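Many introductory courses stop at the sequence. We go one step further.
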Amino acid sequence: MAITAVRTPIGASPGLSSRAAAEAYIGGVCFKQGPPGLIGAELEWLTVPEEPSPPHSRPEPAVLADALGPHAPRSVASESPALPLPGGSRVTLEPGGQIELSSAPFPAAAELCERLRADARLLEKLLHSRSIRLVAAAADAARPPARVLQLPRYRAMERTFDGIGPFGKLMMCNTAATQVSVDAGADPAEVAARWAALYAVGPALLAAFACSPELRGAPAGAWASQRMRAWLRLDHARTRPSVRHWSDPVTEYARWVLDVPLLCVRTEGAGDWAAPPGATFADWLCGALDDEVGRRPELADLDYHLTTMFPPVRASGHLEVRYLDAQPGDSWSVPIHAFEALLSAPAVVAEATRLADPVAEQWLEAARCGLADTQIRAAAVDLLDLAAAHATTPAAADALHEAARRCRDGRTPTGGPGTATEPPA
């Protein structure tokens, strides 16, 4: 459905005078270049009201805001200071009530994991004070999808994805991930190598850490990662860029972004956000949407459009790995250490890319079969052995060796001490 915004004079905004200017802007903001030295992570959990709540219920946003106090995100408490937790992590909420900790960046995975672990314990206590339980599961096996955040962004997202199939609402409301963020690289060559490596190792590491075989509401079919199935199937244009042979990811990513259909056009007031069906940001930029939208895009519109890109690896200044299931217990530290080690030096990056190359395009196979696919399993074992050999601490090396043994045996991740792993009742 097209929308009509308040009319302003038609014309390109400063900084967006042409497609070339928009591509240059995207390349600059999405790929910050400098010596790689930082790592960060985002951890997501499902949230469940403790009994005697009705079956299949979800925490109300107001209750979550009350539990989080000054740490509540403004999506549920508009006047909140949204303070970080003591370890530097910020709290955000996903549409179905999933809760997320977004860490500060740190120079070493060991410090990152220590800070995140402390913040996760505090988060669990805060929520428990209002009878809310965290569940470390990548997919909700019990509750039908239901959106609790009523923001225009999520209304537009749900409407768009519902027109494609069932996976959009499932992704929004019933899945959780472990995400790892790393620096892009010091120069274009290093950026290209690190980008290629993160995509190449994706299917093997997706399978290594897949642990979501059940997802309430998903179409029939056996999948090792129902969470990644949902991501890969919800909107191909937005989630599956053809990156395998990009020699210059900075340029190609910018071109791809501009040709992805608009999820929505933001408007003032309480109305719905929508966009002309199938229209891309490039269409809007060149004036093809002047009649429907009534204005040309500004830099803020392009910044917002960038947040609606959902590829397996997203360029956000740093490189954000988005293909891992939320891990049981506190075993989320293992993939964080894996990425730190695999990106620790150019020679290691090159070796990881080589080891992963035979299965580098098998995203659907990895999500469906996981470690049951012998070729994918072999690549996962090789990558985890390589990571263990280049781990920065003995404890990380031990954890990565154990993960390699687990994969060699075809076993899925299991949780150690930490947040509850049982699914919602």
